[in-house]
């Protein structure tokens, strides 16, 4: 594949004179491959949620940017992520979600692995009836484990293994939302849904970061949480997003509401915040529920948004949960025409990445600057392009 070198100097200028990322960062296969490594593999990217594997032995195969991965809840109740391949001949181990009752068995030659990744059985490896061989050291042939970390139930992975510890990389955000560092209860099957959008994953981030579009794209939401009720959240090179000082709790027909999270400060009586955990996780927190959106890129111009809703207690009203899911589905669906329209716009040869409103686009500009910084650092490392 021919490599497209993009000029990122204009992206990294102050917001008053900066341009957005060049078109190639949304349409070009070689730039997508470069970002795959520099932005998504070299940092802590969202893969899924721990609620995908709720019980011990649960295993879910996930393909992330072409890599076959396996999320497993091991016998010690820890969620682990492995490369979903047998160390023998590279066969896919698990091809559909299932419960691991004993071991993870390769369907090809029946090599077996424990849920913590150890190779525990190699039938006939030394010949018929001989299950060991001096040339096969099981201790060295466990599954390839991918570095992972769980925060707010999102399973983050660092494919390259080179990122700083998650707690260090995201220390400021974890401190900002420390009040939500408590059990979150997934609302169940009805509180998870997906949106397939024909756009580059970054456009979903850019749109989520800002409130500028609310009056026109989300008139229902804007009717009570107005543009002027919102504020920017800007932490250069770390995270960005927006908040509102007006949050209205959802009510049932009988006036019931979801229970609040325990121990929240008064700020959260009326506030809500929506932040992007760079690169690809969108989080929202409210006094009575949170949500996580994991953006999974399927190519330069296609993204699947995996949306999950969480509550303060495990047994909340099913009818109210259904109403909340429907409300958020409507809000997120309202954004689809915008991100898909911007994607089509990236094929206009004269578009220069666009400009930013210095007053309204700060959070989005910070995301562009962060992506450009990751790309520049990758390009400056020896042999980075090889």
Can you describe what's shown?
This protein is α+β, with helices and mostly antiparallel strands. Helices cover 23% and strands 25% of the residues. The longest helix is centred in the C-terminal third of the chain and has 19 residues. 40% of the residues are buried. The model has no long low-confidence stretch (mean pLDDT 94).
List keywords for this structure.
single chain; 386 residues; alpha+beta; eight-stranded antiparallel sheet; seven-stranded antiparallel sheet
Straight-line N-to-C gap: 12 Å
CA radius of gyration:
22 Å
Structural shape: globular
Structural classification: alpha+beta
Order of helices and strands: HHEEEEEEEEEEHHEEHHHEEEEEEHHH
Please give the largest β-sheet: 8 strands, antiparallel
What would the average pLDDT be, to the nearest integer?
A: 94
- Strand proportion, as a percent range, falls in 25-35%
Count all strands and give the number: 18
Low-confidence stretches are none
Task: Say what oligomer this is.
Answer: single chain
Helix content: 10-25%
Number of helices: 10
